[in-house]
Amino acid sequence: MIVEDRNFYSALFGDNPHIIHSKRSMLETVWKIFRKRFPQYIRKQKTCLISVPNRVELLGKHTDYQGGETFLLTGPRNFFAICALSDDGTSELINANPDFGETVLKLRGRKPEMMVEGEGANYTYTVAKRLLDNLSDSGLSHLHLKDVKSVFFGDIPFGGGTSGSSAKLITDFFILASVNGLLTDRDFISLVIENGKKAGLSMGTEEADDFSLALSMYLAHHENGFDFGDLKGDRGVGTFGGSEDHTAILLGERNRLLYCRYCPTEVIEKVDMPQGYMIAVAYSGKKAEKTKEAMLKYNRLSEEASAAVGRLNEINRTDFSLLRDFFQELPVHERAGMAYEQLSDIPDGVRLAERAYQFFKETCITAQAVKCLKEGQIKEFGTLINESHDLSKNYLKNIVPEIDFLQRSANNAGAAGATGFGAGFGGSCYAIVRESHFTDFIEKWKEEYIKKYPQFKDLAQFDVYSACRGVFWENVTR
């Protein structure tokens, strides 16, 4: 059985024994609760196992939704889920952690009926409603969405900046889609691919399977509420983000990093992990909350980027939709300066100038850093990620003191470089470290942080992050 198969965990997460032990314990917990809660479903053919990983944004802070580029690692933190079709007309999604409760709903017509709201119920409702709407509007009557039973469990720290919220939304989608047969249905696969083409995706590339690529962008639009080709959006979950999380989560590969461009999504290149170095990730314990106030801060960065596009169009008499499209006639390294110069000259334009400057500068840094990593220039790569951190701190102003301390203390402890990442306003920091020094580095890094911020002693997490496989799902039996 897959739960006891070490090769299963190695194929997804690598050979680190600590990670394998942790993953096996998680999945055994999910199986145990599913057997106890829904014993009658164990022998059904469409009982499915799902794994949905997290991600680390190595570079590309707040650039994806303006058509920029990001460099991504698919991480070992994940959600496991076991699910089956329901026979009583009610969907139950049970979190194996009882502190987070359960979500109960009925899939009726075009509007799910929410009965019990557990933690993350908003994501479940958003996915279910979008699917019901899009399937109905597409005339795929044979793909009527049926209710499901599921148990899931995740170890991604919410508010940690490693895409826990996107992973939850994607887990909910795969719970509904897998046992309803969508993921193997030719009509649904065609629907997603054809609307991906309408959304501007280039198909048939060597770097990504057409369906997985299109599905990653489609699920990003579940989250932000945008239309996907002819598949109409709704309200989303309230954050105006891009597609990088969903790209890493669906397209990740073992031992490889993804260099991607967005609007539409494109995998530019897959880059091998550097030999002799490892990625350490520290979750600060300070959550980047998705409360109303926190979402306003996050969405401010998106809104300011859009405002900068509007003002640059006025200045240059252009009609571009994205920051990426401006100043293409200039060398890459000159675009940030031109954007800052033009926007800072208008009344109250400094904030927009800073936002546009960070976008162009970060895009330039990302391209340089990918080149350095491919050529084994780790020192130069480290310098660039340090620069990216400073850009975020000084221009996005989303680096809280805890993350700034983690970045500085990582460098002091011997990292080649370090940076906060993700949405900001809390979250995590990663560092690139020599493999031979890794254990001593982690211990020192953690010790210094807890000494400075003892209130996070029981919340902060310091881990090794290998490059892992993206979403996995399979019909299973026990």
Describe this structure in words.
It is a single chain. 43% of the residues lie in helices and 19% in strands. The protein has 478 residues and is of the alpha+beta class. It is globular, with a radius of gyration of 22 Å. The chain has helices spanning 6-13, 17-37, 121-137, 164-179, 186-198, 210-224, 244-251, 292-316, 332-344, 350-374, 378-396, 401-412, 438-452, and strands at residues 48-59, 69-85, 91-95, 102-106, 113-116, 148-154, 256-261, 266-272, 277-283, 417-421, 428-434, 461-465, 472-475. It has a domain at 2-272 and 469-475: Ribosomal Protein S5, domain 2 (2-Layer Sandwich), CATH 3.30.230. It has 13 helices and 13 strands. A hairpin with a 4-residue loop joins strand 7 (256-261) and strand 8 (266-272). The strands form two sheets. Strands 1, 2, 3, 4, 5, 6, 7, 8 and 13 form a nine-stranded mixed beta sheet that branches. It has a four-stranded antiparallel beta sheet with strand order 10-11-9-12. The N and C termini lie close together (6 Å).
